Please model this.
Amino acid sequence: MEVIIINNQNDIDIDENKISSVARFVFSQFEKDESSELNIALVGKDEIKEINEKYRKINEPTDVLSFSYRSDKDIFGFMGDEKEFRKEYGFFTVGEILLCPAVASERLKDYGDDWNLDKLLIFLIIHGILHIYEYDHGSDDDRQKMENEQLRLIELAEKEFNLF
Model:
C-alpha cells in the first residue's frame, strides 16, 4: 500500500513526510489490498481553480478535490475492471486527492483557534479519502455520517502520531 505525494506548489512549505505517514495510516483504515496506491497532489490556486471549473463547473479555487477510480468505470475503457487491472499491472490507484495549501491556509481561521495548517491538511486528506470510499455529504444523513467519520479519523490520527 503506497501513498504518493506530488508537490506541485511552492507557496507554502509542507512537511511531506508527516502528510504521507498520516495519509498512509488513514488510507489503511479503508484499503486492505497491499497493491493499492493513493496519489495526493499539492497544487497552487490557479491549478486547482482550473480543475474545479473543469470538473465541478465552479470557477473558483477550493482547498480539496478528490477523484475516485474505484467508482469511475470510465477509466476502464481499455480494460474490464479493477481486478483485471491489478492482475495486468500489479497495482491499482484507488484515487487522487488534490490539495491546495494556499486556499487551506486562507480558510484556516474558519476552523477555530486549536487548528493549524498541518491539522487542516490532514483533515482535508481524510475528507478526500472518505469521498474515494463513497462517503458523501449530499443529504443531511450522509453529511452527518461523513462528519462523524472525519472526526473519528482525525482523533485516531492525533493519537497515533501525537500530532496536535
